[in-house]
Every structure is written in C-alpha cells, then in structure tokens.
Specification:
With 129 residues, this protein is mainly alpha-helical. The chain folds into two domains: 1-54, no CATH class; 60-118, no CATH class. Helices cover 57% and strands 0% of the residues. It is built from five helices and no strands. The chain starts with 17 loop residues before the first helix and ends in an 11-residue tail after the last helix.
Amino acid sequence: MRSTDNKPIPPFSLRLTSEERAQLEKDAVGLSLGAYIRSRLFDESLPPRRTRSKHPVKDHQALAQVLGELGRSHLANNLNQLAKAANSGSLEVTPDTEQALKHACSDIRWMRHVLMGALGLIPENRHDS
C-alpha cells in the first residue's frame, strides 16, 4: 500500500456520530470495524475474518464445570416434563415437588452466576444473582 514515491499512504479517518458508531459495531458482529467497513465498501461476499470475541472466556475451568453439570443434570428434559404436566393439570404439587422445584431453581441460578462469571460478564466481587 505505498504510493509511487515509496511514501506510506496515510490512513483515512472518518468521523461518526455515537449512534453511527454503535450501529457499525452492532452490524460488525465480531469483526473489527475496519474489516467490516472494507467488506461493505469493496466486496460484500468476503467471508468474515475469524477474530477473537470481544467477550473471551475468563475462566475456562468454571465454564467446563458448569457445562459438565448441565450435561449430567438432564435439566432441559426435566423442565420440559414439568411444563407438560403443569399444562395438562396433572402436576401434583406436594411438599416434595415444591422442594424439588426450589432446588432446581437454585441450581439454575448457580449455573447462571458461574457462567456469567466465567464469561467475565459480572464483577468478581458480586455474589448475588
């Protein structure tokens, strides 16, 4: 990218409003702004470049722990069965059922908290959920 007299070509600057910049960042979906703008200006068929996420995993061990527990829990299937029973009116709410539902909610809150922490989406010193 040099001109004919071997001097570097200066970068091109573009002033944007905060709304325009926010829209570009939203549309870029993981691409750098420069790569996104070049792809829109010159060739929309360019495959997106692989870049690091703006929110990398902060704690891989915690993420692995939560994903392992989630896999072992059969949570999605169990919640689906509970929803079917509740919708059909056949869910008998006994003290044991109520306790099991409270325990499931607590497990889900724990998974959410640990996942958000592992992804760096909550401050480390925050322990509520």
